[in-house]
Specification:
Arc Repressor Mutant, subunit A, mainly alpha
């Protein structure tokens, strides 16, 4: 099983880089994961989405799709694509340390 090191801690990840155990994630890891995903700095809006993703995962067992994210997170779909240009739901899930949402390619 592959591993990655974020904030000085080794974590198990799958072949696409998503955490195998979301409980190993910490907020200190997020900026490093974001940089690796092409996002230089996490803004307040990024954090709103990341916290929303983690809450949805904890409640439902999967992260929300882009459509749900745009309707319920307080961040529009247009803004989501500006914040996470390479695919909002997938990229945000990776940075938030949760598995790839169902329906993401």
């Amino acid at each position: 099983m592959p591993t990655a090191t974020y904030a000085g801690k080794n974590v198990a990840v799958n072949d696409e880089g998503f955490f195998e155990n979301p409980d190993e994630w910490t907020e200190e890891m997020a900026p490093e994961i974001a940089r690796a995903s092409g996002i230089d700095e996490l803004t307040e809006q990024h954090w709103r989405v990341l916290k929303f993703m983690r809450t949805e995962y904890a409640e439902k067992g999967t992260g929300p799709t882009v459509r749900v994210l745009g309707k319920t997170s307080g961040v529009s779909v247009k803004e989501l694509y500006e914040l996470f240009p390479k695919g909002p739901a997938k990229t945000a899930a990776k940075i938030a340390g949760i598995p790839k949402p169902r329906g993401c390619i």
